[in-house]
Amino acid sequence: MVLASESGDAAGMETIMKKVKRMKKAAVICMACLMVAGMTGCSLKKTEDNPQESIVLAPENEMETESVAETGYIPDPEEASAQPETESALVLEEEPEQVAGEDYQLDVDTMALEIGSDETNMTVVWEHTYPEGEVIRLWKVSDPEQYVDFPGTLETSADNKVKHYVAHLSDLEPETQYGYKAGKDDEWTKTYYFVTKPAVNDFQFLAAGDPQIGTNESAEDGRKWEKAIHDMIEQTGSVNFILSLGDQVDSETNTYQFNLFMEPEEVKRTPVATLVGNHDLGSPYYSQYFVMPNQDSKKRGQPDNMEDGAADYYFTYGDTLFLCLNTNDMNNANHIAFMTETIENYVQENGKRPNWTIVAMHHSIFSITDHLESSSYKTRQEALAPAFSELGVDVVLMGHDHSHDRTYMMNGTTPNVVKNEDGSRPTTVQAQAGEVVYFTLNSSTGSKFYEQVQIGDMIAFNNQENIPNMTKVLVREDKIIFTTCRVEDECSVLEEFTLLHK
User: Fold this and answer.
1) How many folded domains does the chain comprise?
2) Is the pTM here over 0.85, yes or no?
3) Owning domain of residue 434
4) 30 & 61 share domain
5) Per-residue pLDDT tens for 371-393?
6) Of the candidates 330, 287, 310, 320, which has an alpha carbon nearest to the alpha carbon of residue 475?
7) From residue 39, how far is each of 30, 36, 182 by CA, in Å?
8) Rounded-to-10 torsion of CA 429, 432, 434, 438
9) For residue 165, is it within any domain?
């Protein structure tokens, strides 16, 4: 059998890969059914009406304490020993085994759960099967007979190559396990499950730099992306969402690469938030794949060579405000105006500033790779760094460099160089007024790495082992703990840094 080349026929490759995957799934399902039938002497049929056992969620890592079972979060190392042993407040229902049948007829790989405007909202994007009428059916796992259908809106790219439904889920209750599926009438996809944020303000998320699927061979890079997020969640525990810092794909016009980004099970169970990277720039399909909430109505951050749907945007999670910038747009004054107005609106609506303000953008403004030699690097740094300090931003998360570094606390472009008595750099820092810490994240897939060429005075920690990294961020009222892991080394800890509130 001759396969079409990726560059010559991406659509052909996409079709072939889907057929192969469906054949594999069918084989696995048939084998599973035969094995179960042989052992039990009966057939299996999955429906929403099947009874489900209640189980207490066990810790996902043997090193975790009872506090993980209670909250689902990595415990604060300073407080872990003082945590009382308590029973889990959230009792999760067991996720039923999925088998083929009347309730599992649509095989849709291109499907993702995406971030909403706040923790009570999410968005689902999925590949269309029918030209109209598809919905997302949502229910609490504790009460599967009571469901709500959220209508899907069919979004089609200008060239008619990408057709995805978009449904906005709303009024999600805290600390609740939900099931959902896409389809219509009697034809539905597999059921996926997610758990909403606890009622307390604590939460955690994964920050991933530059998956850039397709830098090498697309299918292999897609496998690495799937494995990276699976291993991080399996090894370090569940998260509330995944923040991808841009360059989801290598080629902005390659739909197969976008499909691979959305294919992992974890992306259907954990909402993802994305940024526009330079390799995503100019994509005619970006807004069909990623529906970013609360986009700037004035389209600030919207590059001229992209369709609507790629401007600066924000979302809140608890009392933390995330400001997401499309730094491909070099109009830095517009970015600053967007952030200023968003913070002011937050204060007017809530009567106070957000407890934490986190900026996410693709391009690093404190680079240690050869990207620092570009004119746009200096322009962004000189405009944005002082503005972040003036606006009271706490943290800036960046990508683009395929290399890891963390700055000292920065006031504008001036570092506050503090060292321990032995000359080492502190890993717990109390922020002062106007100070911001900047993280530049390495590749999350290992599809490409950059050499570190110049370590400036502003850098407190840097590393390049040519091993993909991800950073788990635990947000609490009084501190944020950043744990960066080596994904290919059993998620061993590369760096842990704690930022104490100002």
Assistant:
1) 3
2) no
3) 203-500
4) no
5) 988 999 999 999 999 999 999 99
6) 320
7) 14, 5, 32
8) 0
9) no
